[in-house]
Structure prediction request, 575 residues.
Amino acid sequence: MSIHGTVVYNSAVEDFKRARRAAAMQQMMARLTGKSADLLAYDDVCRYVKSTDEVKQGVREIPLDAIVGSVGRYQDFTRTFWPKHDSDEERWVSVKTAVNDMSGMPPIDVYKVGDVYFVIDGNHRVSIARQLGTDTITARVTEVKLRVPLSPEDDPDEIICKARYAEFLDQTNLDVLRPDADLLMTFCGQYQLLLDQIEAHAALLAEKGEPVDDETAVVRWYDEVYMPVLRHIQAQGIMRLFPDRTRADMYILFSERRAELEAALGWEIEPETAVSQLATEESQRPRGLAGWLRQTLVPPELIEGPPPGRWREFQATRERGCLFADYLVGISGSETDWQMLDQVVKLAQRDDDRLLGLHIVAREEERDRVEVHRIRERFLQTCRDAGLQAEFAVEVGAVVEVIIKRAVFADLVVLNLEHPPGAQPLARLGNRISQLVQRCPRPILALPGGAETAMDQVLLAYDGSPKADEALFVATYLATRWPLSLTVVTVETEYTAAEALQNARDYLEAHGVMNATYVLRKTPIAKAVLETAVAHDVNFLIMGGFGFRPMMHFMLGSTVDEILRRFKHPILICR
Prediction:
């Protein structure tokens, strides 16, 4: 008996037309958003992700939202199983008229692949179930095992990425060797970089006399190269800056950025430093017109440096046992620079530190001058003679800007204090030392001409400010690492209470420094600090940077300026 023209049939036809409109809308939105609305093809997925064993699981209820593809009809329906073609009306309507609800409908047949399903038989029944608004459907399930599971949210690009990951696992067996490893990436063409790194790490181990087999090379790379970087990334909170990236994505970004930095700087960059720079570049990117104007129009003298404490926060993420392992040493080639280098070498020999020499020229054609080559060779030879690791770079640009850019890749910036800030505003305008003290992201060691680096009679100038707290942190570190005599001076003013001295004492003693001398003064600050230095035979001063903001400092000067002009021994300036 024909059902054409019946109420049930006509209702099914209207339902089909609504389903077709829904399909058309879904396809239009897909074109606008760039996201696929197509069903996944089972054969393509299996070819990409390399399916293995099949296991019959019997009949069960499965969620409709987890059905993402089809074995043979993937071109006939959208991702949510709305019909794509008007020509499908008769078949769709005939299935719809056979049921008023899902009860009594025979089970469909599906493959289960990870957390998703592909229809073997019953595509129209799935479409009808969607139209009826049900959440589940009865299915005979055959599970296909995969090395990399799929999820209902995966689009074709994500499936390809998982396929590349599966290939990587086939080659490395990492998921067996390190079951907790998750190196899934959205940069799915970059797995070759990881394979190259594994090979390079194996070669490095062989050079050290530790030849390894393929599986050991994978494990050693994962444990000794990949995971330490990942810990730095997590410790510095970088993932929140890249919410759409996986941890393995961030490792790739790190690897690429580190290689770029080393090529640009001419220095080998520590992993944690490269990670920190990646975060800094992203977080300090100008936001909107106001950010662009601020970055473009503010003159160098009025630019503020990073907030106090940022360097200490970075140091807390590092796993090495010392604060100062890499010194950036600016070398112009003057005789006083070479005298300064001799003193820096003595300082670096205490902990076998690395010196990063930097020579700055004004124009590109000056890079290859004979004099520049002589400076490079003399610097490197001086370091070799002292048994120190050293690297040397030549860069074109403005001196202050180049030093600030490169300072983030060192732990300490060493400056020749030939030209301290002047006493008058015009004398301070454009002074390189002033700009560096204001803006440098790392502590500065300023060495006056002829200064020795014995640095065993130390004075900490402490006023309780955030920058002074950084100086206190460094003084505490040095007092626990080197044999030295430490004196702490606090000058009581309307801004600095006498309690600041007790706070410094509490901090030092809490960290095991019990034999420091404490001095409270009330005379003008610079005079009090300098007189205390003379009274205690001080040969090394540690203090915070400028207290004023740039404009106020330019107009009024600071205690730091006066001390830089008058103190004739090394000065460590912290921010």
Residues 173-283 form one domain. DSSP finds 22 helices and 16 strands in the chain. The first helix runs from residue 7 to 33.
